[in-house]
Design a protein that fits this description.
Rossmann fold, two-stranded antiparallel sheet, alpha/beta, 217 residues, 7 strands
Length: 217
């Protein structure tokens, strides 16, 4: 009689996940950088604007590295192959390209909104319920009680559209990355449980089109 390990191994071979981790794409945003760069740990003061941007850039890099190590596929808007792909389909506007890539390909979106560009990207996604609910904004804790348009406007809009906001000290690198990784795991788990969007391993644009990893069309 087969032992429990053998039975589980046999069962594993028969189970087909709706989307394997390595095919679940995560869009990671923050201050601009070359995706091939190795970003050093910040040395400037996080209480200054340049320092905040430097910390957010490092967090973007660190989070991407940790996600890749865990087996997830990570996308950057600056990735040349992604830009070339969408340009070949006629998308020359970067906002339209990132919006469509996030909608069609990505199951989770992570943003460290510390630079002008990253805040604009957050605003773009926050105004779409399809994209907002698969977006987490990890914001430096100093801004948690600010009465700025960013805090009481854009972030509240993201939350109203069922996006997630995490306030964390940007100097606590591990906690910031942990928020991001846990969000990705939650998104993947949620999608994996959506049986009504699965038919023989194919992803269908049914109940919640665009809210999970959607097969490109």
């Amino acid at each position: 009689m087969p032992d429990e390990d053998s039975l589980l191994a046999e069962a594993r071979q028969r189970i087909q996940l709706s989307i394997p981790k390595e095919e679940f794409r995560v869009f990671v945003f923050g201050p601009g950088m070359d995706p091939t760069d190795v970003v050093a740990s910040p040395t400037s003061d996080v209480t200054t604007q340049p320092g905040l941007v430097e910390h957010a850039k490092y967090l973007r890099f660190l989070t991407a590295q940790k996600l890749k190590k865990d087996g997830w596929t990570v996308d950057f808007g600056e990735t040349k192959s992604i830009q070339k792909f969408w340009a070949s389909l006629g998308f020359k506007n970067f906002a339209a390209m990132e919006y469509t890539h996030a909608k069609k390909f990505c199951g989770a979106i992570i943003i460290f909104p510390a630079s002008v560009g990253a805040i604009c990207e957050l605003s773009l996604f926050a105004n779409s319920s399809q994209l907002a609910e698969k977006t987490v904004a990890i914001v430096h804790s100093e801004y948690e009680n600010h009465q700025s348009f960013f805090r009481v406007g854009i972030l509240k809009l993201l939350r109203a559209r069922r996006g997630r906001i995490e306030f964390e000290d940007y100097q606590d690198f591990e906690s910031c990355a942990k928020h991001a990784i846990e969000f990705v795991e939650d998104q993947w788990t949620n999608f994996s449980l959506e049986d009504d969007a699965i038919n023989d391993g194919n992803l269908l644009a049914q109940k919640r089109k665009g809210t999970s990893f959607e097969k490109a069309k």
